[in-house]
Amino acid sequence: MPNKWFETVAVAQRRAKQRLPKSVYSALTAGSEKGLSSRDNLDSFDELGFAPHVAGNATNRSMSTTVMGQSISMPVIISPTGVQAVHPEGELAVARAAANRGVAMGLSSFASRSIEEVCEVNSQVLFQLYWSGDRETMVARLERARRAGAQGVILTLDWSFSNGRDWGSPWIPDKIDAKAVLRLAPEVLARPRWLWSFARTGHLPTLTTPNMARPGEAPPTFFGAYYEWMQSSLPSWEDVAWLRAQWSGPFMVKGVSRVDDAKRVVDLGASALSVSNHGGNNLDGTPAPIRVLSTICDAVGDQVEVLLDGGVRRGSDVVKALALGARAVMIGRAYLWGLAAGGQAGVENVLDVLRGGIDSAMLGLGKANIDEFVPGDLVVPNGFFRSLGT
Ligand SMILES: Cc1cc2nc3c(=O)[nH]c(=O)nc-3n(C[C@H](O)[C@H](O)[C@H](O)COP(=O)(O)O)c2cc1C
Known about the structure:
The protein has about 400 residues and is α/β, with parallel strands linked by helices. It is built from 14 helices and 12 strands.
C-alpha cells in the first residue's frame, strides 16, 4: 500500500498530474497567454532568501491570527476557485478540510457546490463574486450568501477575459453529455482512478454553477454563467463603493496590483484587499504579487488588511509574504493539487505541509509570533521590487 501522505505541494502536484485527465489538469495549471505572470509568481518567491538565527530561537511559537474578523489557526486562507471537477466532493471536501484545520474558505460564485451546502460544513466561508449581472441580481446573490451564513464577501475585480494560451487551452464541455463523453473518452479512460472516483458516486461532474442561479431558476452551466459575466457592464469605482455598501460585514477586494487602486479600495471602505494577479490567469505580464506587496503595504497597510495570493506553495512562501507586510496569504493551486491527489485528506495534507513550513521558518528566523517578521529576515536581490501607480 503506497504512502498516501505527501511531504510537499510539489509531490501533490505530481500525483494530481498522474490522476487527472489531461484537460482537467491543464485547466488547473492554466496561466494566460505566454504564462509570464504565472511563471513570475513562482520564480519571484525563489529569488527571496532568508537570514536565519542559530541560537536564542523561540521554543513556543504561535501562528494564529485574524483576517476579516475570522480567527484562523495560521495565516492562510483558501482562495476561491471555480468549478472543482477535480474530485467528486469538490468544494465540500475543501470546506471540511479547511474547517478541520481552522482556516477560512473563499467560495467562488462559479463553484459547483452551493453556498448553503458549503456553509453547512464550514462556519468561516467568505463568498466571492464577480461584477456580473445587474445590481438587483448581485444584491440577491449577497442576500442569499448572508442567509446561508457567509461571514464576508470577496469581490474579484482583476479579470480581463483573456482567452488565448500559447500552450493550447483545454477543451471544456458546456455539460457532460454523450458528445462530451465521446470526445473526452480517450483521456478519461487513461485515468481510470479518477473515472472510478466519480463512477462509484453514481454522478459525472456537473459543470453547473448553483451560486449563479437567479431566484427560482435552475443553475446555469459554467459557460452560461461566464456569458452573463461577459455581457455585464464594467464597474466604475462608484459601482464598487455601491456594492460594498450593500454588505454590512467584512468585504475584500481581490486582484489589486497598483498603489493607486489600493488607495481607492481603502476609500470605498473595504476591510481587506488581496494583492493578486489571479494566479497569472489574467492580464499576462502583470508582475508577481510578492514584487508589488511592499509598496502597497507601505501605502495602505495601516488602513486595510493586506493579503497576497499567487504562487504560494510552501510555508516559507507564506513567511516571505508576511515579512514584506502581508497579514495572511490565500492559496489556490496548492489546495487544488491536494484535492485531486487525495480529496479532503489531500487538502488537509497541504494545509499541514504549509503549517509545518511556517513553523520551521519561524524557528529558523527566531520568531515566537507571526507578527514579528520584518523585511530584514529576507535576502532580497537588487531590482526585485516593482512599484505600480502612486
Ligand atoms: C483553476 C482556477 C480557478 C480559479 N477560479 C477563481 C474564481 O472563481 N474566483 C476567483 O476570485 N479567483 C479564482 N482563481 C484565482 C485564485 O483565487 C487565486 O487568485 C490564484 O489561484 C492564486 O494563485 P495560486 O494558484 O498560484 O495560489 C482561480 C484560480 C485557478 C487556478
